[in-house]
Amino acid sequence: MALMPRKKRCKDVAVTSVYDCSLDGNSPVGKKVKFGDFGVFLVERRMGSSRRRFLTELAWKKGFRVEEQMSDLVTHVVAENNTGNEVLELLEKQHGICRDGFDAVLVDIAWFTESMGAERPLEVENRHRLQVSTEAVATSEAPISSYACQRRTTLRNKNMLFTEALKVLAESAELSESEGRYLAFSRASSILKSLPYTVTKMEDLQGIPNLGVHSRKVIKEILEDGTCSEVGNILQNERYHTLKRFASVFGVGVKTADKWFREGLRTVDELRASNGKLTKRQEAGLLYHNDLCVPVTRAEADWIKHIVERAVRRFLPDAIITLTGGFRRGKECGHDVDLLITHPDEGKEEGIIYQVVNWMTTKGLILYDDIMGNTSKGKSKEPEIFDHFEKCFSIFKLEKELVNNLGAETLSLCDPLAGNQTRGGGLTAATEASHQVTVVATGDKAWKAVRVDLVVAPFSQYAYALLGWTGSRLFERDLRRYAKHLKNMSLSSHSLFDNEQNIYLPATTEEEIFAHFGLEYIPPQERNA
Length: 529
Ligand code: UTP
Ligand code: MN
What we know:
The protein folds into 5 domains: 11-139, BRCT domain (Rossmann fold), CATH 3.40.50; 148-235, Orthogonal Bundle (DNA polymerase, domain 1), CATH 1.10.150.110; 238-287, 5' to 3' exonuclease, C-terminal subdomain (DNA polymerase, domain 1, Orthogonal Bundle); 296-464, 2-Layer Sandwich (Beta Polymerase, domain 2), CATH 3.30.460; 474-526, 2-Layer Sandwich (Beta Polymerase, domain 3), CATH 3.30.210. Helix content is 40%, strand content 12%. It has 22 helices and 14 strands. The strands form 4 sheets. A 5-stranded mixed sheet has the order 6-8-11-10-9, with helices on both faces. A 4-stranded parallel sheet has the order 2-1-3-4. It starts with 19 loop residues before the first helix and ends in a 12-residue tail after the last helix. Manganese (II) ion (MN) binds next to α16.
């Protein structure tokens, strides 16, 4: 597997490095740091302090960065004559870092000496990796796993007081592009969401992983004072609110939001008036911003699924359309609607996105679309952040009347695409329906703009796509991490590759994918990590 340079680590650290000078490019031995993206931590146990000192100096001389303490700056934990489980136990005991608190890879001294010989950080091969036995992890002291994919997290959060505070801290870190801190707070919040009880005293947190010093401090303060001063300060902070506001505009990321803030812009109206250069997506995001801020309801999502189903089946009668994302996990509302499309005859789904979107556009159902063709250049065994499916990030025009007059049971009876006659007649009959919902269209208009993601997966990749698009984001992240660290497998929304056997592991259902990992199956409603 390839080495993973972690560019952000250097500036975004949760724990300050004692060798901060190295971040400026100089090592304590006066040599230039050549491989700043890599941070080595040498485990002293069984290595001894003098040998550790010697190896530390050697590494600095070769242009490596060596961390005295375990921290987010570490990418490679190097140990001699220790098993992976021993190292994990040690890190937890001595450094208070649970196995979930870091992303670094655990390697044997062989990797270190070979890298010194080669004068560069070598790729970590299987033989370099310290084996971590899952049995030991499962039966270790902490009964709660540090991996979200080994926990059941429903929507019934018993620790909202703490998770909301930690969420603010996570958001604030994200808006400062501090990935390490963002993850630490997100993981802390996630573990609390999975607890079957409400935390009322610090002792309730005993043995619970993923709670770093900072997160524990926040929880303690809330237990004592009812609030957390740091969170209070963030909530008073103009930059936090402004960046959050800007980043909530479809098509706007943190960098752009920050740029606008620095230019003195504060409100969406100011942004509209500023005549700055915008992408097409941002233009649409601004145009429909008021609607897009209003949560999408379950009924609206069902209705959009119905519309898409009808549209797709015009071209492919046997196509399968599935509601994924938060709604599949049981959420009552969301920020968008995620739909996955496939067809049992693999190949038939190719290009369908263009036909469907074109057709819906001519019917006036789509306000904005951005179609991406299949971007895969053959299967890659390295998981990537983005998938390569044919997809469309769109904004739908949802008629208020349609959904207001819609009962769940009428979904299959009426066809929004069958022309005006059916549309009027078929729907007014359904006003008595029990499942009354409201399309919250802002202003006086008769429709609401709704964000919809359409994703097309070939049938053989459907199970992986479904798993990948169901979320939650943290659940997905931990599944991939679990695959990589504990199984030496690479998981993506397309496939699962076993790096040891050098083969792809096919799956037709999500259950089969969990089985490939030896994990207990977690249904979507329990993936709200
Ligand atoms: P969403 O961002 O829609 O999250 O992505 P959500 O859980 O449905 O939350 P709300 O309710 O809309 O706010 C859904 C899942 O799809 C995957 C992510 O893993 C996420 O968990 N996804 C999303 C991708 O794989 N790629 C993308 O480009 C977007
Ligand atoms: Mn979603």
